[in-house]
Amino acid sequence: MAAALTLGACAGTPEETAPPVEDVSFDAGTTMAKLNEAGKITIGTKFTQPLFGQVDADGNPQGFDVEIGKLIAAKLGIPADGITWTETVSANREPFIEAGEVDLVIATYTINDERKEKIAFAGPYYSAGQDILVLAGNPKGIEGPEDLEGLAVCTVTGSTSEANIKEYTDNIIAATDYADCLEPLRSGTVDAVTTDNVILAGLADQNAPEFEVVNAPFTEEPYGIGLAKDDTDFRDFINDVLEESYEDGSWAAAWEATAGKVLDTPTPPAVDRY
Amino acid sequence: MDAVIENFPVFLGGFWATIRLLVLSGAGAIVLGVIIAAMRISPVGAFRAFATVYTEILRNIPLTLVLFFCAFLLPYLEIKLDYFVLAVIGLTAYTSPFIAEAIRSGINGVSIGQAEAARAIGLDFAQTLRLVVMPQGIRMVIPPLLNVIIALTKNTSVAGGFFVVELIASSRQVINLRGDAVIAILLAVAVFYLVITVPLGQVAARLERKVAVFR
């Protein structure tokens, strides 16, 4: 059903922003040296997350997560075509990292303590937050979750977003998928849809100009880069790459070429070297 | 198993919604089904034509589409109801032709002499149907009617895809929380359905013994 609703909505292809590959060398024995020598890296990302990681008609993933992956690969001396993209859905990210099927996971991957028990996180490289999607023009004048009191809101059953929004309204319509919430929003059965701003931005982008994101995130979901738990050298290296990219503008360029088309360019979050 | 026990209240909420869907749309479908069956055999041509078209359309469209229509198109026609009510409407409409056809087969099984005798003693069509033909016809079709009701029990799960949090939707909710225990969760859901359908079968069997018409 979700497919039926979003049928015909294709994400635009962001312009290529592949960064220049650096000529680098690393201490022998490190993951960086191994990857640099092999000239290739396997990165897990989502294939169905518009603006962050979504495959285009040719099967190539596009989005902000993908651009961050290219940045890191370039600093390892690996060109964009040396990257093997593997689809990681929410349920298989930790197992893929633990089994070594991927070197990195960049997949709208929220850093939390449970996950830190199994894997390590570099970053965060972006801090998402739960936001609100409304009809274009915002007919009800919703500016934040406080304005939702008494209004009907659609979200996915059992999600964190559902638990969060329960604090503001009891009138919740629970859908199977976020895309399923669009039809009730169109027909006026609900007044708003709520979940992470990046998902909402993707939906708004696919269905432009029907909807708009209120753009007032009220929770924090720091997105990190997942890697093997004990590989501290590699983690430090990625954190360095992220900090460099904040300073030289490549992070902002990656954002503007992808998610920035719908969302404001945020200040990059401070890297957490835990 | 602990995933099921921890989230038992969620399952109970879904179970209760499934039962309400079943009872409301089952009752609605039986009433509507009897009316449609009566129209199908009535002497008025327009009634017969309407009942035939109604039956052929609704029983040949997938339930998902019927519910899709109720949940997504009715709101555009300014029919703004709770999604639960819309699901009951959809399930009732979808199930009624199956009930009607089962009853019609029972009516066909009532010997024509019964109806002729009823007319001969001066009963009109409605009286003949209500007092003589339907009571015999419905008694004969308890097993097929039960099949329709059991199918309806399972069909309520489709409403889970249309914003109604019944058993299947509540299991999805628990799976979101406990992705490591999917099989236990699905087995628990299966057991909940059996809790509804197995007693239904026994009630129907007892009812059939009690009201059977011996010939």
Summarize the structure.
With 274 residues, chain A is of the alpha/beta class.
CATH superfamily of chain B: MetI-like
Determine the mean pLDDT of chain B. 92
CATH topology of chain B: MetI-like fold
Question: Largest inter-chain interface?
Answer: A-B, 17 and 21 residues
End-to-end distance of chain A: 42 Å
Helix content of chain B: over 70%
Radius of gyration of chain A: 19 Å
Note the main sheet of chain A.
5 strands, mixed
List segments of chain A where confidence is low: pLDDT < 50 over at least 5 consecutive residues: 1-15
Topology of chain A as a string of helices (H) and strands (E): HHEEEEHEHEHEEEHEHEHEEHH
Radius of gyration of chain B: 20 Å
Mass-distribution shape of chain A: elongated
Number of strands of chain A: 13
Membrane topology (chain B): Multi-pass membrane protein
Family (chain B): Belongs to the binding-protein-dependent transport system permease family. HisMQ subfamily.
Domain ABC transmembrane type-1 (chain B): 15-204
Subcellular location (chain B): Cell membrane
Describe the fold and architecture.
- Chain B: GO terms for molecular function: transmembrane transporter activity.
- Chain B: It is found in: Cell membrane.
- The complex is a heterodimer of chains A (274) and B (215).
- With 274 residues, chain A is α/β, with parallel strands linked by helices.
- Chain A has 10 helices and 13 strands.
- A 5-stranded mixed beta sheet of chain A has the order 5-1-6-13-7.
- In chain A, strand 3 and strand 4 form a beta hairpin.
- The termini of chain A are far apart.
- The N terminus of chain A is likely disordered.
- Chain B has one domain: Orthogonal Bundle (MetI-like fold).
- Chain B contains 10 helices and no strands.
- Chain B starts with a helix and ends with a helix.
- At the A-B interface, strand 10 and helix 7 of A face helix 4 and helix 9 of B.
